[in-house]
Amino acid sequence: MKKRQSLTALASMMGLFLAASPALAEWKPDKPINIIVPWSAGGSTDQVTRVVAPLLEKGLGTKIVVVNQSGASGSIGTKAALDAPRDGYTWTANAIANNATYAITGLIENTSIEDYEIYLHIANVPVVSVNTDAPYADFGELLEAMKGSDVTVGTAGVNSSGGMALAAIKEEVSGELGARMVTYDGGNPAVLAAASGEVVATTQLATEQTEMIRAGKLRALAVLSDQPLVVEGLDSIPPITDWLPEMPIAADYFGVFIPVGAPQEVYDTVAKVWEEHVMTSPELQSYASDRGAVFAPSYGEKALEVAMPVVIAEACARVTRGEAIVDPSDIGIECPAE
Question: CA within 20 to 30 Å of 37's CA: 14, 145, 275, 337, which one?
Answer without folding.
Answer: 275
